[in-house]
Write a structure and sequence with these properties.
homodimer; 355 residues; Aspartate Aminotransferase, domain 2; Aspartate Aminotransferase, domain 1; 2 domains; 9 helices; 35% helix; globular; binds pyridoxal-5'-phosphate; binds magnesium ion
């Protein structure tokens, strides 16, 4: 029996996508060859890359003047590539909103290349809220946010906007809700939440912002090179891009991001209502900043969590252990997680309350 | 019918590996979860990473004092990481042997960070030989070679040795022949030839050479960080590492690198003998420098290649079109290509000669 997979990432993917991915590992496009043993320059793999890019553009409504590329290295390499591409070589300045572990790591990389400042931080309360009402200096090259804080279960609902360029790490909520791409100059996201297997990262970047820093950028780190070579500057992570493409096809099939957002809202409402209602548990994030992707909750003092742990495991639930930075539980409800899985967890929570 | 797959990379993998990879995409380790939808920190994925590293060490006889890591970004990111980690920040100097497109690209990245020189080049003859008898300055931080030139079909048989550190890009012949790892301070290789799918790169590095440049290295580019985090600094390319691990298990099963080398020698002898014997074709690389992985050959003037192309396609052969830099044909005979596939190509060449 398939598990109720609440893993925080890499995470659940649609079962029809997994089936098709497995088939293509054996025989891709009826070529009598595996997807993973043919040239990335073959017309079939180029078609996969093109469709993946087209689906990203269509599903997010990417306006004219933006490029979409797939690169390797995860979001962590984007922490490095962002300042290399956007921070001026002389007198470079960037501002970061620090909402958790990932924002902190991104900021650290920018500091190596120039004057990167933290405009606000929620570290004082273990990142359980999104800072608001702060000032962003008007003279920064770019301002960086993290849309969803995978570890601490908070999510930006109203994006603050800087006068300079606006850059966002959307690794853990891209394609989960509607966003206005035109509000951003650059968006990046590791595939391994709502898109596909680890190993690919999507970058959506406004073309006109590139090439303006005066930096000599190493080739692999240069967005313009990946754009010019249509993500084939070097051998791309073919399998990860292919499975991402399949997942985006699936998303389009269920009605796109607007429809997905409704389903995700229903899942989040179901679980957060139960966390609030249930006398044994409480949520850790401020209510108004709660993430619809990652719900972090703790048991009240004195609650027998060993029994609860036994019960959810017996119900076929997996992946709800909290991150060590928060403890307790973290139920990640990415796109491919069905409402039934959330219901299964809620059922266990209710059963447990009665014991 | 499975094709005779001579692709230059990504390239043929053992069919039992493909079968097991497909199974694990559906249900990994009987977890009732896919390999690509579970946490990289789960004990099953950590076990995959550990086994992959152990197999690299065992199969290549990696001595004590070396670390083995898997990173993303392909060999192209190693072109960047090499100088970042090994070239001194002040007065850094490196030497490169230029034997083809990949060496040239590697050299270009080093030049951005310091004084990188070309000690010798075979560009004068379209890289159809390996330069010999050149001097390597004794004061360079490191000396870089490319063991096998995938595009031009040449291979270093006797590695020149520098007084400084010796670094080698073995992307297209690692695990194909015995090497003495102790002769090198660092070896890197993209997975997508003899190891697995695109998306993972293996780096074998002598621990004591790191941390000596005085450079502030971006986290993702820092070998020491990947070593300290056992290739889990960030989400690793799980699928690519897993399939690489399966391929290395397969290699161990057939008797390891020593046995593989004999098989590869037999395949190369079979094809090169035919290229030499056959009146319609000739090889492009100098005989003493011929690659056992990639055999490049051209048809003599006036030969009807359209007919030949029809014939090999009809025989179920794929991937032997030459790279545009050389033209003609390139038959790549990586580890997983069976001798029977080479025989099939030789048969077609002989049949064609008689027409
Ligand atoms: C919001 C966010 N940013 C960045 C990262 C780091 O991603 P990667 O492991 O692909 O480098 C993660 C990983 O979980 C994340 O959730
Ligand atoms: C010898 C060699 N080095 C480097 C590369 C570049 O590798 P990647 O595409 O993984 O960056 C290749 C690719 O074919 C290669 O054959
Ligand atoms: Mg976080
Ligand atoms: Mg409660
Ligand atoms: Mg070459
Ligand atoms: Mg001949």
């Amino acid at each position: 029996m398939k598990k109720h997979n609440f893993s925080a990432g890499p995470c659940i993917l649609p079962s029809e996508v997994l089936q098709e991915a497995a088939n293509s590992v054996l025989n891709f496009d009826n070529l009598d060859l595996s997807l993973i043993e043919i040239s990335h320059r073959s017309k079939n793999v180029v078609a996969v890359m093109d469709e993946a890019v087209a689906l990203v553009k269509e599903l997010l409504g990417v306006p004219e003047g933006y490029s979409v590329i797939f690169v390797q290295g995860g979001a962590s390499l984007q922490f490095v590539m962002t300042p290399f591409n956007l921070m001026k070589a002389e007198g470079g300045k960037a501002a970061y909103l620090n909402t958790g572990t990932w924002s902190s790591k991104a900021l650290k990389e920018a500091k190596r290349l120039g004057n990167a400042i933290e405009v606000a931080s929620s570290k004082d309360k273990n990142f359980n809220y999104i800072p608001k009402g702060f000032e962003i200096p008007s003279d920064v090259d770019y301002f960086h946010t993290t849309s969803n804080n995978t570890i601490f279960g908070t999510q930006i609902k109203d994006f603050p906007k800087a006068e300079g360029l606006n850059v966002c790490d959307m690794s853990s909520d891209i394609f989960s809700r509607q966003i206005n791409v035109a509000d951003f100059d650059m968006i990046y996201a590791g595939a391994q939440k709502n898109m596909g297997p680890a190993g690919a990262t999507v970058v959506i970047v406004k073309d006109e912002i590139l090439g303006k820093t005066g930096r000599d950028i190493p080739a692999y780190l240069d967005y313009q090179i990946h754009i010019d070579k249509e993500s084939m500057f070097n051998t791309p992570p073919v399998f990860s891009v292919y499975v991402s493409m399949l997942t985006l096809r699936w998303l389009k099939g269920i009605g796109g991001v607007a429809e997905m957002e409704k389903i995700n809202q229903a899942k989040a409402d179901l679980l957060y209502n139960e966390i609030d209602r249930n006398s044994k548990f409480y949520g850790t994030a401020e209510k108004e900043d709660r993430s619809n992707m990652n719900a972090c909750f703790l048991a009240h003092e004195g609650v027998d969590t060993a029994l609860f742990d036994e019960m959810w495991k017996a119900a076929g639930i997996s992946g709800i252990n909290g991150h060590r930075s928060v403890g307790g539980y973290r139920a990640s409800m990415y796109n491919a997680l069905p409402l039934e899985s959330v219901q299964a967890l809620v059922d266990v929570m209710q059963e447990f309350e009665k014991k």
